[in-house]
Design brief:
The structure holds three protein chains of three kinds.
Chain A lengths: L1 H17 L3 H15 L17 H12 L4 H12 L8 H4 L12 E3 L4 E3 L1 H11 L12 H11 L14 H15 L9 H7 L4 E2 L2 E2 L12 E3 L4 E3 L1 H11 L10 H13 L9 E3 L1
Helix pairs in contact in A: 4-7, 8-11
Chain B lengths: L1 H26 L4 H20 L7 H13 L3 H23 L13
Helix pairs in contact in B: 2-3, 2-4, 3-4
Chain C lengths: L1 H23 L6 H7 L4 H12 L28 H4 L3 H9 L1 H4 L16 H11 L3
Helix pairs in contact in C: 3-7, 5-7
Classes of the chains: A mainly alpha, B mainly alpha, C mainly alpha.
């Protein structure tokens, strides 16, 4: 009897590794980065490349003293408070207030899709007869900056519900995207942000995937403004000579779902500044 | 003596080859129909790659350039660009199909 | 001085390779002895270098250190002592043409297979890399 139980237990364990779920994936990533950067504490991963780049970090800390994203937060607050043409506002769509970035991305069972914050914001606009915002550049970043600022300190906790197989399928889809090589230069996200994290492409140090989603929207000096996470996805796709996919399309939303789940347990710290 | 014969034959063979290639190339000047055909093939290959999210960044740009060249009557240039785009479409499609199964890389240990 | 040392070592390698093939009388590949016997045209090497360092072409510096070239990355190993480490030029060419053939998890761009560079461009890069 005891033997049978042990065998069953062993079988259960092997089944888990063969079909790793979100939590196994997260632990594997943590183990990988811990081995590579033993002195970097977990919470530091929310700071992107600056967790592992002491020289860039000094510069970054100086920038954060006078945050370049501040005006965007203020503009976002004005958007949040200004009523729509019909007299309603964002407040009516999101009655719990702007400190809600940790609620996204989440599985929308009714629609059978991953719901992201930008999508939810546009749904609110459309439901009130307003024009939806563009997903990469422009004013969406203001409202996102305000919400991110209000959500600072909240802890990421993405759930992939077990009662809807489509949720796991979406997660798996995002994971597959992450590990798939694309573009003429034949890279996957993993090639740069996992396999070669900490190494340099030219002068650019490659950041870890853990923490990639905590600080959005990001003010990038190269952009000269704040941009969304999906704008960054496009950029990384473009650099490897792959055609960027549609911002907030299914592929990028599923990718965001996977990446955010990997960052479970980290604190949100957006908006942030990057080179 | 022997070497000289071989050399002479080689020279002759190459000369013939080069000559016929030149004739062929001369006779193969692309016309509007060939350009249109090459562009249609390129567009089909691009679409096939896109159907598996495997389209490359510049494929569409090359097709556009090919169309412009064809419009300007530069059919050779149009065919060349379209061929390049078609190759890219084919390679981008194969790249995705060859990875249809998710494989976790060996450096990530569970 | 460095150049002289390199030249001498090159000559030594070429000489010993020639001597070896001469001795055994059976060259391992068709390409190798021909390539080694032929004097590499410096113009070809210069062209190869231009393609290798061009960011829109080889962009090898994105990942490799090459002596005296600015802002190299370090995703791949430094490119040095290539002749000694790659006596067989075909092997060197294969690494550049498609590194994923030997190592499916290689981060190196498959320059030939995915037509980032033409075969003629790769030939020139090989000549250049072989001088490092």
């Amino acid at each position: 009897m005891k033997k049978i139980l042990i065998t069953l237990a062993l079988l259960a364990i092997t089944a888990v590794t063969a079909q790793a779920g979100p939590e196994e994936d997260r632990m594997a990533f943590i183990k990988y980065y811990k081995a590579k950067f033993p002195s970097v504490p977990m919470e530091e991963y929310a700071n992107g490349v600056y967790a592992i780049d002491p020289i860039g970090r000094e510069n970054w800390e100086a920038i954060e003293e006078f945050p370049p994203y501040e005006p965007f937060i203020d503009a976002g607050q004005a958007m949040w408070e200004k009523p729509f043409a019909n007299g309603k506002g964002y407040k009516d769509c999101f009655p719990d207030g702007p400190a809600m970035a940790d609620k996204y991305p989440s599985w929308d069972k009714q629609q059978g899709m991953v719901m992201t914050l930008p999508l939810a914001l546009n749904n609110c606009l459309k439901a009130n007869g307003e024009k939806p915002l563009k997903y990469k550049k422009g004013p969406i970043n203001n409202i996102l900056a305000y919400i991110a600022f209000q959500s600072r300190g909240k802890v990421i906790n993405v759930e992939v519900p077990k009662d809807d197989p489509r949720a796991m399928a979406a997660y798996e889809d995002g994971k597959k995207f992450y590990f798939t090589r694309r573009g003429q230069l034949n890279f996957s996200c993993a090639t740069c942000h996992l396999q070669n994290t900490g190494l340099r492409v030219r002068t650019e140090i490659l950041s870890p995937t853990l923490g990639h989603v905590t600080g959005w929207p990001v003010y990038r000096s190269k952009w000269g403004t704040v941009g969304t996470l999906h704008r960054r996805f496009s950029g990384c796709n473009n650099n490897i000579r792959a055609k960027a996919l549609e911002a907030q399309g299914e592929e990028y939303r599923n990718l965001e779902y996977f990446l955010t789940s990997l960052s479970n347990g980290l604190e949100l710290n957006g908006p942030s500044a990057r080179k | 003596m022997k070497i000289k014969t071989v050399l002479a034959m080689l020279v002759l063979a190459f000369g013939l080859l080069a000559g016929s290639a030149a004739v062929l190339a001369g006779g193969m000047k692309a016309d509007a129909a060939m350009a249109a055909d090459a562009i249609a093939k390129a567009e089909a290959a691009r679409k096939q790659a896109a159907s598996v999210n495997g389209e490359w960044r510049d494929t569409g740009k090359f097709i556009k350039q090919a169309q412009e060249a064809a419009k300007a009557g530069e059919h050779d240039k149009a065919v060349k660009l379209a061929k390049k785009a078609e190759q890219e479409g084919r390679l981008g499609y194969e790249q995705q199909v060859s990875q249809s199964e998710l494989k976790i890389p060996s450096y990530l240990k569970y | 001085m460095k150049k002289t040392v390199r030249l001498v070592s090159t000559l030594v390698i070429i000489a010993s390779a020639a001597w070896l093939t001469g001795c055994t009388g059976k060259p391992t590949t068709k390409e190798a002895p021909k390539a080694m016997a032929a004097q590499v045209d410096p113009a070809v090497v210069a062209e190869g270098k231009a393609i290798a360092v061009n960011r829109k072409k080889g962009n090898c510096l994105a990942c490799h250190m090459i002596e005296d070239e600015p802002t190299p990355g370090n995703v791949g190993p430094p490119l040095l002592a290539m002749q000694a480490r790659y006596p067989d030029k075909a092997k060197l060419r294969a690494q550049i043409w498609d590194a994923t053939a030997a190592n499916p998890e290689s981060a190196m761009v498959p320059f030939g297979r995915l037509q980032v560079l033409s075969d003629a461009e790769i030939d020139k890069i090989v000549e250049y890399i072989w001088t490092l």
